[in-house]
Amino acid sequence: MKYTEGMLRDGAMEGKNILITGGGTGLGRSMGEYFLKLGANLIITSRRLDVLQQTADEMQNSFGGKVLALRCDVREIEQVEKMWAEANAELGQIHGVLNNAAGNFISPTEMLSANAFQTVVDIVQKGTSNVTLTAGKHWIKNKQQGTFLNIVTTYAWTGSGYVVPSAVAKAGVLALTRSLAVEWAKFQIRSNAIAPGPFPTEGAWSRLLPGELVKKFDPAKKIPVGRVGEHQELANLAAYLMSDFSAFVNGEVVTIDGGEWLKGAGE
Ligand code: HXC
Known about the structure:
The chain is an alpha/beta fold and 267 residues long. It is 48% helix and 14% strand. Keywords: NADP, Oxidoreductase.
């Protein structure tokens, strides 16, 4: 078996309806495609309905299952509540939420306007809280089990220059993950997080390694295992944490970065 292969058996997510914010592109899309292959149905959201709808059509054609594309800016609680109601009306009970929507750019912090700082915090932290509150309240009221999986990053705990609003917001998302893992476990609601390292995508990759930086990025020097991640490796982890196989995993953050974040400490 190779690490580029799917890990879980066919049907491992049969009957599950999973919401993925920011599910139209990049890693959100890759994780969604694997969930579909495993038998799940999806609700994917983002601000761009044209991109979403195209993704939904392509996904359904390739992998079957149902993919519902719903426009939603996660910063706006009214839009989140409307999206959640539509998703439930269309697909019935939703079993899992992958909080994947993010916004980020590199900038010296002293160059940021207050609005620029707040924009990133709002997409990442407020957006995740909005979706989590909406889903959690619904699940608790209707006595439904649920699973949250939140995408963070290792600089949520190490901190990082030049992406400070993102670091601040991701630290908040990690705190939310751990706090609700304790508070909401009694309602059969689990919360976990994944901290992905370098996985090439069109969007985030070009934003975080713009221009010449991408040419200078040498995985052999930066990452102990000597390579970047394959999307399937992340999808395998996400599917495990979203599935019932991980029923006893709660409040955990799993880093998948080839050891990148520890490299500075170890050398
Ligand atoms: C400085 C910037 C900027 C930049 C925008 N702003 N881009 N400031 N450098 N590169 C400022 C604007 O001037 C404005 O401030 C404020 O931010 C809001 O900008 P808008 O364009 O109006 O905001 P909006 O349309 O909401 O767009 C949000 C966004 C955008 C974050 C700026 O890039 C976006 O929508 N991104 C979504 C996708 C994304 O970023 N994905 C990457 C996630 S990767 P003023 O003062 O002028 O009003 C990720 C991985 C992390 O998170 C892990 C890494 C290992």
